[in-house]
Amino acid sequence: MIGIPDVTGGLQAQRSRLDRALDALEEGAALLARDSPADWRGPARDAFDGARHTVRGHAVEARARVSDARANTDAAITTLAGRAG
Question: 1, 13, 45, 68: which one has the fewest Cβ atoms less than 10 Å from its Cβ?
Fold first, then answer.
């Protein structure tokens, strides 16, 4: 049988992975905040800007999902800690 400490340890490991994922998403968002290269003109610049806009939208959604998962993980850890006592 799996005990509360085992589950809590697994949840804490999951929390660490979620923190790293959120850090990576934030780093990616910072990279996307940069402007396209100044010497790019016309279709190349339009393609870069369009791709950046699309990826930004996905990054915002991913950050929200990771933040939600992290909050749920924290709640589960708190609940288990209360039961363990």
Answer: 1
